[in-house]
Amino acid sequence: MKHTRRHVNLRTILFGRPIKDREAESRKVGVWEGLSVLAPDALSSVAYGTEEILIVLSAAGVGALWYSLPISAVIVLLLIFLVVSYRQIIRAYPTGGGAYVIGRDTLGPSAGLLAGAALLIDYTLTVSVSVTAGIAALVSAFPSLLPYTVELSVLVVAFLTIVNLRGVRESAQLFAAPTYLFIVMILAMVAVGLFHRAAPTPLAAYVTPTAVSVAPLLILRAFSSGSSALTGIEAISNGVPVFKEDSVQRARRAMLLLGLFLGSMFLGTSIIAFRYHIVPNAEVTVLQQLADRIFGHGWFFYLLSFVTMAILSIAANTSFAGFPQLASIMARDEWMPRMFLARGDRLVYQNGIIVLGIISSLLIIAFRGNTDALIPLYAVGVYMSFTIAMSSLAKKRWQEGNDPHRWVTIGMGLFGSLLTAAVVITSVVTKFTEGAWIVVLAIPTIVWGMRAVHQHYRSVADELRLEDLTLVPKPKALVVVVPVASINKMTLATLSYALSMNPEEIVALHVAGTPEREARFHARWKNWNADPRIKLAVVESQYRSVIRPMVRYIDHLTGLFAEGRVVVVIPELLVEKSWQNILHNHMAVALEAVLIFRRRIAVTVVPYRLQQKPVNSKPS
Amino acid sequence: MKHTRRHVNLRTILFGRPIKDREAESRKVGVWEGLSVLAPDALSSVAYGTEEILIVLSAAGVGALWYSLPISAVIVLLLIFLVVSYRQIIRAYPTGGGAYVIGRDTLGPSAGLLAGAALLIDYTLTVSVSVTAGIAALVSAFPSLLPYTVELSVLVVAFLTIVNLRGVRESAQLFAAPTYLFIVMILAMVAVGLFHRAAPTPLAAYVTPTAVSVAPLLILRAFSSGSSALTGIEAISNGVPVFKEDSVQRARRAMLLLGLFLGSMFLGTSIIAFRYHIVPNAEVTVLQQLADRIFGHGWFFYLLSFVTMAILSIAANTSFAGFPQLASIMARDEWMPRMFLARGDRLVYQNGIIVLGIISSLLIIAFRGNTDALIPLYAVGVYMSFTIAMSSLAKKRWQEGNDPHRWVTIGMGLFGSLLTAAVVITSVVTKFTEGAWIVVLAIPTIVWGMRAVHQHYRSVADELRLEDLTLVPKPKALVVVVPVASINKMTLATLSYALSMNPEEIVALHVAGTPEREARFHARWKNWNADPRIKLAVVESQYRSVIRPMVRYIDHLTGLFAEGRVVVVIPELLVEKSWQNILHNHMAVALEAVLIFRRRIAVTVVPYRLQQKPVNSKPS
């Protein structure tokens, strides 16, 4: 028994050896490692943020593309607000959980629930969309893989699930290289692109007066699309506890670094995309076009394509850190099933990881690997959680009322919450028919479900609570029913067990197919003369079923014996080899499955293990 | 409770209402109905019997086709022997079971086992091959169905399974029309074909002297292929009990009718195939070619094609009557798992039907709906069972020794057994590499498995047997272990139950995550002061798992308490609605699953059902 856990089995190979509680601290990560676990979701937005803006604007002609510059600038301003605010939030709420905990503690449970539902949806969408986007990039490089898009995507989700079941630090080590390579390559491309002499045409020639004739709604749509570039920046504040001590300081530093990287990469990409007047097209991404123009169709182009794929797949990993953490916090508050609280051998919230893997796989299968339709759903949920976090921050600082500098934070929080609320409204209005309605429907549904869960736990707790501690256990009278098919050693053992329980009455229950068999069994029983306390009851079976007449008899007995408890004691034959199980009828299992739902009937299974000594007998 | 069975639910719609034992007689069938249940396997052989002979002979040129006439004549002589012998067998063994029962009762269990294994294989092959052949015919009419061959075949098997789970008479009514239509159409075609004036050329012109230069081995191969036309004729003698009283008389009459129909249809087809000098080809069957020549490419051609498909599919139904019957007889003799003895609500041996449906579906899937490869396997098993039946008949009549006419039967049995043994040897030798080796391998494997089953049942019976009836149940000392997570009403109820059992000792077992929690629970427990007989044991969990430390403790306790029994009493919370089950951890189920395999530990599950009165509480 003692060394069982040392065995190297499939479980250990897939998920690693079990980790003890006191090892927990050493699993935690530093700033740069934490960035590679929590930042890929936000950073990978650079792969499509500028492109989403240009796609919307290009509908109004090439001249309209100029607007990408002010739109990107506004988004970067938004980013600065968010980073500064989130650094405050990390300090105010060091246990993570992000918008859910913040909203709950400051604005009340309803705001928390709303943020929690929005974030859980967002985590799931991130996995589905990022993984399929990564696979789509792979497939455009190897077209022969096209028929296996769904299978490959699900395989990647399964891979991420297993990696995360192994624990957080392993993930960090695995994903650090592509994350930092992506940052370095984009920044290098921006730097070269900004100062390269060989820019194709002067900017002035490209900015024509036609640019001004663009409808305001289109600008809003473009802004709303571009705002998806900031999704994922909340991940660090949600996951503060994964950092080493001092986790708040480390998380704040990581948040600052993320802001600097994301802002310069996003704005830089938008500027050089305009400088090289890139027009979005369906085959090649904006990033790939830029790499092609600036460095030519060489190693940089191919490496960037590959790293982009990698970081899109890795972005999904952010959710595998965030979803289980949030689900466990919400489970502790009894809004989610208790199972999300269970930590496995490797110290991770295994059920959250598994549920996330399953739901995002189902989404991929349901949308047949084409999750473009899900992208518009992103921004709504994320910015809703931003709004709740910002206004919570403002309210909290206002309530504390000590620090003379607090008005800066309060003003920032209020302004930030208005700004992000405006993004939510803009996204819902401009993209309602494109899929935003799904989120508008899903969030209230999930909130409703969580309230039902909460209500259940509360009513169970109310009902089980033992307020009067003078109530102590008292014995009741027992009636024991023992199903008896024939008189043999197993019957002897089971009836001995029944006698040990000191019951008021023991009924040996026999089911007979015909009156003749009934008479024969009666005679054998009388001959045995087992014990005066054991009464024989024989019921006839009209339908050849053994279970049904037994249950009917037991129900009848329970009705008669209202003041006590009926216990059904069922023998179960344990065979030596597992194949031999198909040779027996397992009445204990079948009967227990039926009886367990009856309030006043307890079921006891008494195992009888065969010795299986080789019997010296020839087949007859 | 009383009217539950009257509810019209999905189960009733699919399988019909439950049938009581005393209704059994009215489910049985008459001669003509019985023929339509048991004969399609044999009759459908007409669809390929002649063709199989011609395919082998045509390898030696058109001149060799003449040999189909003497070969068919020999096969019909064989048929006559078999029919006469099987009518004797039906009389000698009126409970059905065919070659298995006959071999077992007369030649001993080994011969019976051999026949039983051969027949079970044959029943399964019949289902797979007939269904896919029928679907192949359908698909050649509607080529757009080609990609769904496997799915359609499995669907037909599922349909046959459900029809047979409804009971035998329903099948008879459903299948009578195509069976008799097939008989009438083939006999009509033979009659018109024999006497039609417009035969293309005189026979003499067609039979050239080149015919004589055919190798004897080819003749044997052609004979062996043609002998597949007689597979299935044993079905009636195997299924005698499905006939109404006097079932022996009715079965003998059905056997005679089958012989007459099959003989005239097979021989007639061979003769007119020769008269119209049909050469087999891959696209159109011999029967379709004949219909085309004799009646033109009109309604007869299409109707015959359709009816041929239908009877091939229905042929599979023979096995759904025979397999469960044989399996139940062999289960009664303890060669097969006991579950094949269970008769369901509709009086059929449901497990036999379900197992046959599953195995034949798996064969279809494994061979991707192309079961041509399985056809050579047929004859070996069937003729092996014929041999055993014939020699049994001879031995039985010889042992009885009263009837002066018995020598006729003995001679017939001996000659028949030699003849059929010759067919087995011919088939194995001439078709070994074509697939006969599979049967040569499978039969001993199945026989070996059946012997293992028998050995198990015998050793269990030996071990359980209570020879000394002075041994009576005696109470033993009990130690009860009750897992306790917290002190609440469920704990109260479970401990009350434990006290009712009058044990020597009660251990309330608590698993604590940390030393602080352990101390806190100790204090609460002391404060409660439940009962002096209940001792608290607290174990610490290093790995967050609750089950593992409990099991370790219980194992330890079992070791200490060698002279008595350890009973683990586990509470199980019963919720009102099934979705609420995902909100609880179901420790009872998890713990029972582990503990049930320990010899000396009994497990009691005590249900605690919540009232679920609406609780007047707001979410906090």
UniProtKB/TrEMBL annotation, chains A, B:
Transmembrane feature ranges: 64-84, 113-139, 145-165, 177-197, 203-223, 254-279, 299-326, 347-367, 373-394, 406-429, 435-453
GO cellular component term of the entry, any: membrane
Subcellular location: Membrane
One example GO MF annotation: transmembrane transporter activity
Taxonomy, superkingdom: Bacteria
Assigned keywords, A-Z: Membrane, Transmembrane, Transmembrane helix
InterPro entries cross-referenced by the UniProt entry: AA/rel_permease1 (IPR002293), APC_K+_Transporter (IPR053153)
Bilayer topology annotation: Multi-pass membrane protein
Keyword Ribosomal protein found: no
PANTHER family according to UniProt: POTASSIUM TRANSPORTER KIMA
UniProt-recorded name of the protein: Amino acid/polyamine/organocation transporter, APC superfamily
Organism: Sulfobacillus acidophilus (strain ATCC 700253 / DSM 10332 / NAL)
Source organism phylogeny: Bacteria, Bacillati, Bacillota, Clostridia, Eubacteriales
